[in-house]
Amino acid sequence: MIRNKTVFFSLAGLLLVVLFATNLIYGAVSIPLTAVMSILGGGDGSNAAWQHIVMLSRLPQAVTALFAGSSLAVSGLLLQTLFRNPLAGPSILGISDGANLGVAIMMLLLGNSFVIFSAYSLSGSMAIIISAFVGACLILGVIIYFSTKVSSPVMLLIIGIMIGFLASSVISILNFYSAADRVRAYVMWGLGNFSGVSVDRMPFFIIASSIGLFISVMLIKPLNALLLGEMYASNLGVKVRRTRIIILFCTGLLTATVTAFCGPVSFIGLAVPHIARLMLGSSNHNLLLPVTIIAGAAVALLCNLLTVFPGSDSILPLNAITPIVGAPVIIYVIVNRKNIHYFNN
Fold first, then answer.
1. Which residues of 190-212 are buried (b: 16+ CB within 10 A; e: fewer)?
2. Can you tell me the distance from the alpha carbon of 144 to that of 124, in angstroms, rounded to the nearest whole number?
């Protein structure tokens, strides 16, 4: 439990700096620390390969992990509070499945290119990003529509799960009728990675993530009221239905952005809010939200480091690492659920 906030946030900031710096230094290609520092300072142009690796690969990847981890963690926290369910996560409403479906249609049905308004031909990674974002946003729109028709959070949760099943069913059909090379490409995308955001696309990724995180900060007071139930929150003056729509929009924006650029990253959104609660011993969002943002960034940076297999130039899939970090946390939470503060301040 946090007793000295200043010391805690100072140590957390130092941990983030260390993890971020380690992501720049450590990788499949060995680059001396002095060379990395020189490259970041604008010098050491003698080794073009090292400069390319640090500035165009490791730096964007570390920044992506920083924002993606925070975004997924906050998404999980918002959904766990909204549905009063400690096992709710970014994928539970079908938004991630919508992104998966968008990519499946593009990769399995349309091939490796498609045309937008018959004017712009897009291919490769940019086509994947656009199709994932569009798919996620469409499902988000459906969920928000149902949120205006259904008053019970549990029923809305069930609707989201059913929509996810429908999307998965369509993906299975596309997989069955697609060529082996397209199926393999789709499976590789589904393994997740933080290397899909190039320097040119970084501004959009950062802006979209920052907007979602800013909205989540503005929701701290309504979230604290929702901890005690929707009826209590309504008595306090919280417009529950409007707040629910804003939470769903914020979650959808964060999840859609991360999934579009990084693929369906698992466990971070589900496990990190619990890590934050265990450190705090409370569910008060005044502290829980910033701690979740920091913890999400730290866990994502750590997972990105662990994808590099020691002593080898092999890079492991991101979703092969995140369960190693996240699954033990979830098991611990399930076993010790009565001792963890969820829905009270």
1. bebbbbbbeeebbeebbebbeeb
2. 31
Radius of gyration of the chain (CA): 21
CA distance 180 to 124: 18
Give the percent of the chain with pLDDT over 90. 26
- Residue 65, CA distances (Å) to 25, 260, 261, 297 in order: 15, 14, 11, 7
> Is pTM, for the whole model, over 0.90?
no
What whole-number distance in Å separates Cα of residue 266 and Cα of residue 151? 29
Task: Measure Cα distances from 134 to 113, 130, 131, 259 in Å.
Answer: 15, 6, 5, 11
φ, ψ (nearest 5 deg) of residue 235: -65, -25
Beta carbons of 199 and 60 less than 8 angstroms apart: yes
What token pair was written down for 117? Answer: 């308004």
In this predicted structure, what is the pLDDT of residue 341? 57
**Distance between first and last Cα of the chain:** 14
Express as a percent the part of the chain with pLDDT over 70: 90
pLDDT-based confidence at residue 3 (cuts at 50, 70, 90): low
pLDDT in tens, 248-275: 889 988 988 898 888 899 889 989 999 9
